[in-house]
Write a structure and sequence with these properties.
Elements: H1 2-18, E1 32-40, E2 43-50, E3 56-59, H2 64-74, H3 87-95, H4 109-119, E4 123-128, H5 134-139, E5 145-151, H6 155-165, E6 179-185, H7 195-204, E7 205-216, H8 220-225, E8 240-241, H9 244-250, E9 255-260, H10 265-274, E10 280-281, E11 288-294
Parallel strand pairs: 4-5, 4-6, 6-7, 9-10
Antiparallel strand pairs: 1-2, 2-3, 3-8, 7-11, 9-11
Amino acid sequence: MIFGKISYAIQSLVKSLDGKHNFCPSCGSSNFFFFGGKSFSKFPTSLRNCQNCFLLYRFPITLQSESLRFYELEYSQPGLTTDLPDKETLSNLLTNNFLYSEKDFSRWIPLLKRLSVVIGRKIRVIDYGANWGYTVYQLSKLDFISECVGYEYSKVRSSFGKNKLGIKYIDEHDFNGTFDVVFSSHVIEHMYNPSIFRKHMDSLLTNNGFVVLTCPNGSLSGIVNHSNSWRKSWGKVHPNMISDLFLLKLFEGYNGSIQDDNLSDLSVNILLDSCQTAISSYMPTSGNLLALIKK
């Protein structure tokens, strides 16, 4: 752990001095202001706010090669996010369909079922950032979903999902505009270039298809309401803080809204109604953003 922080600090210092990557990783703009800073060892990194696309990004930025290496070899979070379960643990999870576990995604069922009703048939879903397949496995069991597949950056985790859960994964060359819903939970904040997310949605979704996106709240209203907890939300694991302003810019031309991550019946109704008009923000203050976006 200590060696990793020192290594990261040295890499950050070298990149900050070479002057080669002094731009927003999403839109390429060099117009920014400093939002905050934090230190790894004795070497500072900074949080910048792009004045073109409104992304809050860590500087020095993460390069594509660094991102791939990190998620294949270094990425570690407590619990089942990165800890691949042993045979006995996995058997218990599958037997109970992950119910009451930390990876229980049943709270999303009412919203996804309503989307099936709106679309008027069983829906084809992709979990964007599927990790080792726990969400795909659960969604595949639902009778209103015709097929659910995964897209995953890490080959180690997708291999586990294929071999242990029988999950189907696809790559970018399979993105052919045939998905009714893209579900993405806590992924975009990890991406070295989050503008790729929009490009992938354009390629994945059918006309009038939906994106269900949730991520940590990097909006100013969220930061204010959560005091200094935002300082823990960015760093090597999260090179970006995603705000409603960034998502509004990213999804220009789409419909929908960005709200608190409340999945009550009333909230779901508001989310669905908002898909009739251009994307807007309800200035969410919860710890996570929830966006329902219609192509």
